[in-house]
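Saturday, quiet lab. Running sequence design on the C-alpha cells for the scaffold JK sent over.
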C-alpha cells in the first residue's frame, strides 16, 4: 500500500487531469479531512511534489476563506522545459548569465522588450548586493519562477 503522501499526490493529479481549465481550487482543511491527516501533510505534498520544476504552481491563501490553487503549467509531456530550466539556470545564476538568458528569451519572443528590461533591472547586482546574501541563488530561483509563470495554462487567472 502506498503512503499517505503518494495517495494525496495521486488524487490531486487525477482531479487536475480532469480539470478543463488547467487548475483546481481546493480548501486545505477539507482536503486534510478527506485524507484524515493534518494540514501540514498537505503542505508537505504541495511543496515537494507540485513544484515549478515538475510543471506546477501552487497558490495559497490561509484563513477561514482560504484556498489552494494548483495550476498545471503548459509544458510538454516529456518534461523538456523543466530539464532545460535546470540545465540553463541551475542553482545559481550570475548577472551576466541572467542577462544573456533574458536577451535570448527576448529574441525568441518569450519576453517583450519591456519585460526584458524590467527583469534585468530586478537582477542587477547593484540592487541585490546589500539586500540578499546570495544574489546568484536569488536570480536562479526567481528566473525559474518567472519562466514557470510564463507557461501557465490558466491565462485568465
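Result came back. Writing it out in full:
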Amino acid at each position: 500500500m502506498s503512503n499517505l503522501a503518494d495517495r494525496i499526490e495521486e488524487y490531486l493529479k487525477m482531479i487536475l487531469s480532469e480539470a478543463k481549465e488547467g487548475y483546481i481550487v481546493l480548501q486545505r482543511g477539507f482536503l486534510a479531512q478527506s485524507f484524515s491527516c493534518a494540514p501540514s501533510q498537505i503542505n508537505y505534498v504541495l511543496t515537494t511534489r507540485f513544484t515549478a520544476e515538475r510543471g506546477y504552481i501552487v497558490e495559497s491563501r490561509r484563513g477561514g476563506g482560504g484556498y489552494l490553487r494548483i495550476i498545471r503549467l503548459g509544458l510538454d509531456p516529456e518534461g523538456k522545459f523543466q530539464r532545460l530550466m535546470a540545465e540553463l539556470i541551475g542553482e545559481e545564476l550570475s548577472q551576466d548569465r541572467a542577462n544573456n538568458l533574458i536577451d535570448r528569451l527576448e529574441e525568441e519572443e518569450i519576453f517583450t522588450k519591456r519585460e526584458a528590461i524590467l527583469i534585468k533591472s530586478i537582477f542587477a547586482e547593484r540592487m541585490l548586493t546589500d539586500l540578499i546574501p546570495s544574489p546568484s541563488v536569488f536570480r536562479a530561483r526567481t528566473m525559474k519562477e518567472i519562466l514557470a509563470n510564463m507557461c501557465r495554462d490558466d491565462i485568465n487567472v
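Notes for JK: Strands lie at 23-26, 56-61, 67-72. The longest helix spans residues 135-150. Ask whether to fix the surface positions before the next round.
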